[in-house]
Amino acid sequence: MTVRFTGKKPSRRAFLKGTLASTAGVVAGAGAANAAGPDPLITEKQEWAMGTGEGVDATPYGLPIKYEDDVIRRNVEWLTADTISSINFSPIHALDGTITPQGCAFERHHSGAIELRKEDYRLMINGLVDTPLVFTYEDLERFPRVNKTFFLECAANTGMEWAGAQLNGAQFTHGMIHNMEYSGVTLRTLLEEAGLNAAGDLKDKWVYVEGADASSNGRSIPMEKALDDCMIAFKANGEALRKEHGYPARLVVPGWEGNMWVKWIRRIEVSDSAVESREETSKYTDTLEDGTSRKWTWVMDAKSVVTSPSPQSPIKHGKGPLVITGLAWSGRGAITRVDVSKDGGKTWETARLANPGQPMALTRFYLDTEWNGEEMFLQSRAMDETGYVQPTKAMLREVRGENSVYHNNCIQTWWVKADGEAENVEVS
Amino acid sequence: MTVRFTGKKPSRRAFLKGTLASTAGVVAGAGAANAAGPDPLITEKQEWAMGTGEGVDATPYGLPIKYEDDVIRRNVEWLTADTISSINFSPIHALDGTITPQGCAFERHHSGAIELRKEDYRLMINGLVDTPLVFTYEDLERFPRVNKTFFLECAANTGMEWAGAQLNGAQFTHGMIHNMEYSGVTLRTLLEEAGLNAAGDLKDKWVYVEGADASSNGRSIPMEKALDDCMIAFKANGEALRKEHGYPARLVVPGWEGNMWVKWIRRIEVSDSAVESREETSKYTDTLEDGTSRKWTWVMDAKSVVTSPSPQSPIKHGKGPLVITGLAWSGRGAITRVDVSKDGGKTWETARLANPGQPMALTRFYLDTEWNGEEMFLQSRAMDETGYVQPTKAMLREVRGENSVYHNNCIQTWWVKADGEAENVEVS
User: Fold this and answer.
1) Which end of chain A is more exposed for a tag (fewer CB within 10 A), N or C?
2) Domain A85-291: assigned CATH number
3) Domain named Moybdenum cofactor oxidoreductase dimerisation: which ranges (chains A, B) (predicted)?
4) Residues of A in contact with B377 (CB under 8 A)
């Protein structure tokens, strides 16, 4: 075998020579960049079309164009103790497709977002395992990886709406959610590396997971789920997790409430019972009318919302063709159908799914319709592969009462007025 | 139907009262944010784990953590006339999964990246159509939308390697590529809106597409492709296109060379012949040994590259478990198989595809292997659903000679040395 390589890079001149020699009129595509300079025939009005020509447009890491500076995460002032929130909602009213860019993806911190270097990162597996282990970040990268797209929804998403229509905008009512393509190692792989013989019968076993932040945000997860589809993710949408999403590694618990997706994950303990930690008892439980609480309500039930038109995305054109669009998801599997109502749930039309539903991932739906210019009470209703149908708020209140904070997956209503503006309302 | 809504937002106090009343010990998840303050038991060394607690970590639009500041687009100084390039390569050596974040996705400008407001945007359809039309941006949003993930590869990707191993890193040899989830309207929808009866037999018809930048970057596309799967996209990975990718709308030409994906698209003319514009004659053609040129070489043939280990992503651990990973793609359909060689193509092992290949989209592959600590000549070889097999550089040179700049889809070789460092080499 002959190996050839050039230790030093060729000069640009040499490169151009090599290509120019080939045939008259052919210039290297790359070399010709910026050849178009200012043209005296271009009028002042067309100057915006010229770009800079100086190449300053090329950016190492790019941000959205200035005209989109309203497509950002937002908090709700009265929701948190600080004026600057530790909850920031995804601008779902302004997005399309299914992927949420990391830059505007929902963030929630129990003790702030910490800065943890890969070099300082450690992940311990202990408890009922054959060999307790501590992994470095580099260790994690040596195990077989998987790639999957999943939604994360906070258990509190839409929680403020239990008592009635409150927050005026899909970003605020339904924006505690994001959907990303994760790359990482399955939790099963790491647990099997430590060995589970010591745990005996796995049926009733648990893992307790905690993060490296001050809250630790410890959560108990049944072994069955841990071995099924959980993963330790280090990349989201191709690149490293952001600080606010748990850099350098977080737990992914597909279809289950977001607080279980422990960020900066540092320890996984195999145990024979749930820890019943602060984060899983004082929070994320639902108090019923009789004062008892629903417990271990991990799975996020099927849900949907119309993202446009909506209060932050009013109709700006008159009657005629209108695209109604939104998102649907289910923690129990794939979305199979979404219906849309324009009259507050009296009649329904089946929407078009942009692509076949994927398990535990956001599904985009569209209803291509004609608007008659009159007011609408827009609703969407999701169904998943288990046959579950998203309930109305009345149905949900009937079984849960009005004391709950979490797990509100009821049908949302937007009152779209004749002028195209929309408002969050409740119909019954 | 009863409609209820609150015109004013409830006070935080009222909200907390509503939830605290429910049962002792239950606090609103949102309201409890930042409750964990500094703890005297936390040692100085653990201070990094505290976050700020002030909420300043919450950001409207987030950027990567500072520790990842090397995962950025990069140019190649000698490749362009200006020191700041109008070509910026994706850092594929540092990414995983398949989605390319917009912030570090390959950019290439023929006349700089222009800033075009949605309000100023117009798209004209003219030529052999029943009714010439001009669409505003808002008009485009009223047509039925589609969502699809596609790769864009510049025809010049890997072009510098025809003459031998040149650029030391997958970012530079193969980084003129990105892969995003697009939302937009099919070109067919808009052409049918204008009406194609005037064009008669569509078999030999063309569309000529041009952008609003000074280069206009006009390209001719056969009607068959235009009606098949082309789209006018306004969103990528959920959010608006970035300035550098053609905000507010660009053409998507799945599987075909990136320069046809006209950015800031302003005009589509239906015609009975190709225009043979500057951008499709002086560039993007391949000159053969006999001086003639291959023309209309639109489709990007099946190709792959190992992204790690690679020159910018050396092996930092010793022998033992090693994940070899990379990307594969084909403009003719889905990737069906990727083989990896450690000995410069003498023997091959079939890699694991992270997910089934999707048509004209990046596919992530992994080879979970054991490294013996000795040097490797790493190669990957992609196959697509048409049965096409990615060729060696020798095979490609045999049919194309060495005058080409574009359409180099040959097998890449990384020489991984015993110390884990890697270098771009050529083997024969």
Assistant:
1) N
2) 3.90.420.10
3) 294-413
4) 1, 3
